[in-house]
Amino acid sequence: MKQHALHTEQIALGERANPGTMDAELRELHASTADILRRYPADLIETEIRARLSHDTERRANAAGSRFRAVQTMGFAAAACLVVALAVGVVQTSGSASLEGNMADNGVLHLADRAKGNGPILFVYRKEGSEAVLLRQRTKVSEGDVLQLSYVAAGDAFGAIISIDGNGVITRHYPDDGLMAGQLRTNGEIPLDFSYQLDSAPAYERFIFISGKRNFSVSSIITSIQNAGRFALAATSDLSGYLPAGVRMTEILLFK
């Protein structure tokens, strides 16, 4: 599929004025969007995600050592909305997306901005009523908030998602056990199987996505960070020195 220029998409989303010379590009963009939505209908995507969520539910829900409580309130419709949003080529960074796939008359989701950058990306969404809101860096969250994590592998084959809270507790989100990183899916934005409800840990929640072309030891990274003590467990500490060669890291810091 032809990749449309960013400013054309911004005009289509109403973020930039149409200079009057972009009509052909806009028609082509809308036609491409409609074609994607025909090939990836939301109901089929939701069915696929429901099946994935049901796999190993009991094992994951009872996994020991996690300070988060696994919940399924967002896992179905929200995850389907995320996949459809990626197919359209836009992801919201402000406002919210309807969990039922809120669309304009031209078939474009009511989302506000495009996911930028060519490297791996970590997304954190918060359930707000019937909507999933994408959280910016340093957004304020609270105990009891239900969060959904998702990632874009950007060509990396293996990865791990961990979090560090204000008590200095490190939690594994993906994979939830084992010594090594998990294999990443590379077909767009991938939500984790479970949403999570925040506990009472103070100050901050720091979510970290580590990925690479080759597999690596997640346990070694966690042990190195823990052994480094309070400095490494701080909200804005530089963790690059605790990572093996050949991996890269992206993160989202949320405050409480």
Describe the SSE topology.
Layout: H1 6-12, H2 23-39, H3 42-54, H4 57-61, E1 69-71, H5 77-88, E2 97-98, E3 121-128, E4 131-134, E5 146-152, E6 158-165, E7 170-174, E8 182-183, E9 189-191, E10 195-197, E11 204-212, H6 218-228, E12 247-255
Antiparallel strand pairs: 1-10, 2-4, 3-4, 3-5, 5-9, 5-10, 6-7, 6-8, 6-11, 11-12
Helix pairs in contact: 1-2, 3-5
Count of individual beta strands:
12
Count of the domains: 1
- What is the arithmetic mean of pLDDT? 73
Enumerate the spans where pLDDT stays under 50 for 5 or more consecutive residues.
Answer: 55-67, 72-116
State the order of secondary-structure elements, H for helix, E for strand.
HHHHEHEEEEEEEEEEHE
Strand percentage: 15-25%
Distance between the termini: 42 Å
Fraction of helical residues: 25-40%
Major beta sheet summary? 7 strands, antiparallel
The helix tally amounts to 6
Q: Give the radius of gyration.
A: 19 Å
Structural class: alpha+beta
Question: Would you kindly provide a written description of the structure presented here, covering whatever features stand out?
Answer:
The protein has six helices and twelve strands. The protein has 256 residues and is an alpha+beta fold. It has one domain. Helix 1 crosses helix 2 and helix 3 crosses helix 5. The radius of gyration is 19 Å and the shape is globular.
